[in-house]
Design a protein that fits this description.
Blueprint (H helix, E strand, L loop, with lengths): L2 H7 L3 H11 L4 E17 L2 E21 L2 E10 L3 H17 L34 H14 L3 E17 L4 E16 L6 E8 L7 H14 L3 E2 L4 E7 L1 H13 L3 H5 L24 E4 L33 E5 L2 E2 L6 H7 L10 E4 L6 H6 L3 E15 L4 E14 L2 E6 L1 E6 L1 H7 L2 E2 L3 E3 L11 E3 L2 E12 L3
Parallel strand pairs: 7-15, 8-13, 12-19
Antiparallel strand pairs: 1-2, 1-4, 2-3, 4-5, 5-6, 8-20, 9-10, 9-12, 10-11, 13-14, 14-15, 14-16, 16-20, 17-20, 18-19
Length: 469
Amino acid sequence: MSAAASTNRTNKPHEVVERALELSRADGCVVIADEHSTANLRWAGNALTTNGVTRGRTLTVIATVDGKEGTASGVVSRSAVTADELEPLVRAAEAAARGAGPAEDAQPLVSGIPQSPHFTDAPAETSSAVFADFAPALGESFARAREGGRELYGFANHELVSSYLGTSTGLRLRHDQPNGTLELNAKSPDRTRSAWAGRSTRDFKDVDPAALDAELAVRLGWAARRVELPAGRYETLLPPTAVADLLIYHMWSASARDAAEGRTVFSKPGGGTRIGEKLTELPLTLRSDPNEPGLESSPFVLAHSSGDDASVFDNGLPLTATEWIGGGELRHLTTTRHSAGLTKLPVTPLIGNLILDGGEDRSLEEMVANTGRGLLLTCLWYIREVDPATLLLTGLTRDGVYLVEDGEVTGEVNNFRFNESPVDLLGRATEAGRTEKTLPREWSDWFTRAAMPALRVPDFNMSSVSQGV
């Protein structure tokens, strides 16, 4: 076969998967081809600065080798793999497996799942056309911002990833994941005032730059009056974006195995887990569903590596709607097939979205109107874990903390460092509003598909004053 013919044979992602499986000499093999395409816009000072489109492919080969002491696995991922590099990649994964000890999470590779109907189709791709309506509307927002004496900064990014999964046990699965994010900052000309808004979207058809600019203009107006407040505990309204950042960390920390081993906030004193325990008196449900309208995610496991909450042996395992908290009660913790066996809990892998619902049909504005005196946050950032035993987190407020008095915002206050546990916050929250799609500010590079309500916390711990804007 000529070099040109060889390259053509492995040009399409499903053909790359098939060829890699053919080349495998391991006892088991999993191949994931991820086809990436992105389109983006950036702007500063009310003018577009850059735009671009990218394309790329990442190939992950997972080899499993059976031995007397158990099954070992080896994982190798590379970008832009050519036809000539395919066999060395497969051999590298096999060598990694042979050089490794038995994998603790070893399980039989998943089988018996029907092939995806579009497995052999070309990958989905994005392009600058995704911004066909958004870009002109953004330009109009620049004009309004200039007239209003404010400057807009930010970026819009749209990504499409087509993932092709093939295994030596016969799985041939595919998932197309669109993912769009918009972050918009408005600043006063002297840069002393800043306000932020973000949105998550699948296609930019549901994003209105004019509405976001109008929202930011109001917030910059609030900031015209400055009030300095000391550290302390304040009644605080957390908007959906801040709630998402906290509860995503909650979900990432909800490993059943870690809980059963007594290492997390979900560990039961004396042994076991807190499943079945009431975490909040509010009738809240924290859940994930790969088929959630507008937040759709992969309906099967796509694991490029193994860890506490994922296993390469689970690739292709079907995902179904899961309640992590139901009616305020802890219902499930994350498990792989391996950790489910260790903990005697159901198999409930991580899913690519997170929804908190069960609150009142009440907007954030209505919650502000019902506040005597308290703080209204914009967003959180630089969130870090302090104590896994309580899931105590620390972080900073950003781009606007506002004072609410007698149901009205009366000014902007200084930023704070906070120290809070999302599990403890759920237990102390006294009100939850209307659930809406939101963009987590801190975790938007890793997790964007979330829907959350605003929460009222009567005694949010602002542990120290921050000088950040």
